[in-house]
């Protein structure tokens, strides 16, 4: 009785697995126009990597679609495609392997009436000049008469991940398929190149290291996209082991993303815990990079798992920074969410855990592009923040350097800037003259009209000083009703003419307050600076003496101190 149960059990088990093991799916050609992009076929994983056509033709094949992904454990896989022409016309067919560019080699074995009719092997290291290869797609031609069938065995030897696709076309459909490939990938790469150029300009403008890390992240991403999706093969007709080594960019890309995060969020300075976590992941990635430099094929085997770990760690760090109030991380989270989601699809695809689709197979490229756009926004937004801070600092500096009433420079700024102008005058051997100005009888204005009106008079005179001076002249309010001007590249005689224009303008100035006009005059003292060995303070003292002379001799006039030593002054009376 137990024997019957066992027999029944094994019979049920056989019947359960029979459809997938023994089924012989066929690609039926029943129309004159042929464009088969969805059909069933079989596959057999060659773990020994040494099976021949004669070995595999009698082995069981598992049914799958014409687009499949089997992960890293199926580096050598045989695919079986049965083509049957059920139409009434002879068909010239072209079997396309659109992802052949990422393989190490591919073999074609055409069987007719249980006999090997033709075989060809395509080694990707020599594929550039092979007639079977066109722009990254392997194209195998065959002809089927009406009612005839052929079995095609395809041996796919991948470098790391086994993802495979087969399409069948007639001549016209084949031509259209070959011409139209990779336009979407070219668009992605073009957008990333534009971002690289844009970020290069930002780096030269700001010299921030995050711009360098972001640029290398973009370059790594676009190299991998162009390589993985066939743009390099299509554009440059390059294949094989040497080109496959460019997959090292899949490892450098997260490295530069880690460095970018550390720089843009300043984790070393403000977030030591998160910084150590990122450093730990960075150390692992650098180790895998070193491994990849010696054996890229082996290093890529754990790449999908490592990518999943990287996404979890970076997302967790981002959440932590967001909870701690970093102002930029919310934008990073948006872009990184796109990256994590779409790369999650891709990881499942490359591990052979999900059915092939455009979204799954192109998940990495889509995720990189969306995150790259977000990172570009983050950089621009950070530059704006820094510019706002710089503008705020400049305003504070300006407030510290200027008189709040007149918006002229104050005494402290005058002396620091005057020393600089004096040094320039010494180096260029050009003259420099200082002018001291004081409002005549200003106390009477305050006593008669009040300090508010006195402030208006001071503002009016300050505006006149700016109006009748040059942009390179240094004008400052020293306090109360006293002003000082430093005139670069100006000799004593020229400075006297400038002072006279100012004196005359102030004499004719009227400050209107409550329907009354207030008139004031000024007295001026001038001294030429001995740029060879005199200080600004010494020249100011001499100009002060000339000012006192102007005050004592009647006001509303100019006096000059014409010697660098002694107390001689020469009044110039102007009325």
TrEMBL record:
Signal peptide: 1-23
EC code: 2.7.7.65
Pfam families: 7TMR-DISM_7TM, 7TMR-DISMED2, GGDEF
Keywords: Membrane, Signal, Transmembrane, Transmembrane helix
SMART domains in alphabetical order: GGDEF (SM00267)
Keyword Signal part of the UniProt annotation: yes
Top-rank EC class of the record's enzyme: transferase
SUPFAM superfamilies reported for this sequence: Nucleotide cyclase (SSF55073)
Reaction it catalyzes: 2 GTP = 3',3'-c-di-GMP + 2 diphosphate
Residue ranges of every copy of the GGDEF domain listed in the record: 430-563
PANTHER family on file: DIGUANYLATE CYCLASE DGCM-RELATED, REGULATORY COMPONENTS OF SENSORY TRANSDUCTION SYSTEM
NCBIfam families: GGDEF
The protein's name: diguanylate cyclase
């Amino acid at each position: 009785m137990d024997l019957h149960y066992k027999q029944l059990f094994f019979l049920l088990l056989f019947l359960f697995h029979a459809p997938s093991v023994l089924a012989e799916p066929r690609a039926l050609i029943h129309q004159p126009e042929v464009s088969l992009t969805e059909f069933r076929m079989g596959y057999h994983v060659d773990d020994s990597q040494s099976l021949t056509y004669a070995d595999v033709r009698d082995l069981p094949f598992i049914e799958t679609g014409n687009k499949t992904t089997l992960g890293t454990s199926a580096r050598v896989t045989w695919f079986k495609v049965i083509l049957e022409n059920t139409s009434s016309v002879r068909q010239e067919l072209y079997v396309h392997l659109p992802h052949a560019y990422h393989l190490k080699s591919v073999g074609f074995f055409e069987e007719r009436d249980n006999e090997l009719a033709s075989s060809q092997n395509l080694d990707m290291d020599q594929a550039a000049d092979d007639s079977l290869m066109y722009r990254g797609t392997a194209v195998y031609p065959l002809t089927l008469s009406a009612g005839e069938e052929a079995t095609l065995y395809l041996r796919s030897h991948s470098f790391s991940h086994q993802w495979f696709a087969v399409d069948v076309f007639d001549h016209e459909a084949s031509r259209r398929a070959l011409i139209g490939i990779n336009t979407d990938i070219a668009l992605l790469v073009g957008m990333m190149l534009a971002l690289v150029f844009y970020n290069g300009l930002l780096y030269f403008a700001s010299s921030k290291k995050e711009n360098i890390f972001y640029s290398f992240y973009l370059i790594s991403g676009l190299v991998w996209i162009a390589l993985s999706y066939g743009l390099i093969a299509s554009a440059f007709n390059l294949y094989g082991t040497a080109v496959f080594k460019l997959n090292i960019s899949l490892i450098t890309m997260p490295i530069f993303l880690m460095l970018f995060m550390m720089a843009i969020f300043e984790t070393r300075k403000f977030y030591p815990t998160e910084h150590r976590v990122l450093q730990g992941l960075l150390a692992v990635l650098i180790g895998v990079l070193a491994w990849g430099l010696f054996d890229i094929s082996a290093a890529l085997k754990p790449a999908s798992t490592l990518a999943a770990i990287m996404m979890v760690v970076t997302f967790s760090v981002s959440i932590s920074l967001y909870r701690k109030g970093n102002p930029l991380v919310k934008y990073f989270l948006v872009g990184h969410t796109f990256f994590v989601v779409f790369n999650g699809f891709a990881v499942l695809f490359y591990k052979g855990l999900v059915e092939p689709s455009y979204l799954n197979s192109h998940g990495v490229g889509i995720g990189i592009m969306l995150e790259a756009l977000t990172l570009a926004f983050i950089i621009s937004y950070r530059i704006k923040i820094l510019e706002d801070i710089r503008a705020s600092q400049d305003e504070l500096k300006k407030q510290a350097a200027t008189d709040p009433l007149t918006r002229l420079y104050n005494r402290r700024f005058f002396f620091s800037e005057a020393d600089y102008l004096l040094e320039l005058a010494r180096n260029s051997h050009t003259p420099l003259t200082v002018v001291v100005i004081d409002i005549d009888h200003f106390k009477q204005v305050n006593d008669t009209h009040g300090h508010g009106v006195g402030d208006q008079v001071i503002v009016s005179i300050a505006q006149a000083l700016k109006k009748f001076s040059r942009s390179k002249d240094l004008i400052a309010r020293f306090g109360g009703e006293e002003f000082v001007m430093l005139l670069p590249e100006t000799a004593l005689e020229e400075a006297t003419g400038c002072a006279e224009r100012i004196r005359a303008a102030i004499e004719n100035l009227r400050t209107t307050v409550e329907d009354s006009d207030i008139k004031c005059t000024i007295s001026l003292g001038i001294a030429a600076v001995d740029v060879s060995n005199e200080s600004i303070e010494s020249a100011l003292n001499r100009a002060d003496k000339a000012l006192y002379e102007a005050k004592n001799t009647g006001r509303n006039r100019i006096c000059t101190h014409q010697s660098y030593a002694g107390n001689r002054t020469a009044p110039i009376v102007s009325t």
